[in-house]
Recover the amino acids of this structure.
């Protein structure tokens, strides 16, 4: 009986470990970041670059929010996110939020809507820009980061730009001027902040979830000691 209990405990722990490993592998986005063919015909598979995600870095999240509000909500909505939640979680004073970061509404309780009607955009671009609230969970942080860094000039496209990750993307290279002004390193950092913000937006409690998860596992491990001793005590006279 005792052996059985210990075995099932071991199996339970293994299962929990396995589930954690699988979920982090899934979150890391097991899929690549697209394929393309070089001019000489060789096929190249693009590896995703690692997005610098750190939801405890408020400065990075604030810079990301600023870029998102200034460059993305013209076309994209983020319909599950309220401006007031951004202000609260990212510690942005509501007055500053209202003054600088509320582009498409003047009510701080409103969700983020796109400035331009989606049907009109579908006509303009040939594809409607998807809602971005959950984008990093759909595609993975690294995919979104790599996508945003993979625009290149292509005169054959309507907006003069194309994308290595999403071939013939209908989205123009909206950060083009920023890229030119900032230089490679600073530009990549700014895009990193943007994706960090998008990761926060897709799951505001992501950091807390991990911390609580670690505590719960630690608690269970500590609980194991008295439970094991009790088990020994209860069964010691039973053969
Ligand atoms: C001028 C309008 C416009 C702006 C501004 C814009 N986008 Fe887009 N975006 C689009 C369109 C249109 C698509 C659809 C592309 C396609 O499917 O070919 C798209 C697609 C995307 C996708 C890929 C969605 C998917 O899963 O296929 C991401 C990610 C994205 N945009 C992020 C951003 C971010 C971040 C910004 C701000 C820096 C931004 N976009 C600004 C029009 C825009």
């Amino acid at each position: 009986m005792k052996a059985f209990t210990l075995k099932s405990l071991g199996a339970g722990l293994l299962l929990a470990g396995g589930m954690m490993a699988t979920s982090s592998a899934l979150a890391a986005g097991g899929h690549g970041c697209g394929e393309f063919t070089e001019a000489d015909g060789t096929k190249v598979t693009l590896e995703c670059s690692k997005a610098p995600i750190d939801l405890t870095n408020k400065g990075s999240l604030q810079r990301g929010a600023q870029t998102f509000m200034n460059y993305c909500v013209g076309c994209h909505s983020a319909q599950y996110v309220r401006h007031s939640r951004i202000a609260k979680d990212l510690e942005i004073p509501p007055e500053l939020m209202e003054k600088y970061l509320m582009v498409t509404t003047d009510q701080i309780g409103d969700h983020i809507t796109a400035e331009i009607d989606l049907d009109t955009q579908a006509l303009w671009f040939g594809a409607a820009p998807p809602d971005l609230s959950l984008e990093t969970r759909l595609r993975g942080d690294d995919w979104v980061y790599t996508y945003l860094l993979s625009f290149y000039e292509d005169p054959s496209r309507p907006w003069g730009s194309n994308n290595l990750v999403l071939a013939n993307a209908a989205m123009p290279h909206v950060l083009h001027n920023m890229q030119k002004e900032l230089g490679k390193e600073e530009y990549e950092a700014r895009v990193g902040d943007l994706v960090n913000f998008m990761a926060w937006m897709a799951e505001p409690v992501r950091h807390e979830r991990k911390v609580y998860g670690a505590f719960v596992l630690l608690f269970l491990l500590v609980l194991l000691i008295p439970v094991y001793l009790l088990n020994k005590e209860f069964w010691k006279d039973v053969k």
Observations:
- The chain has a mean pLDDT of 89.
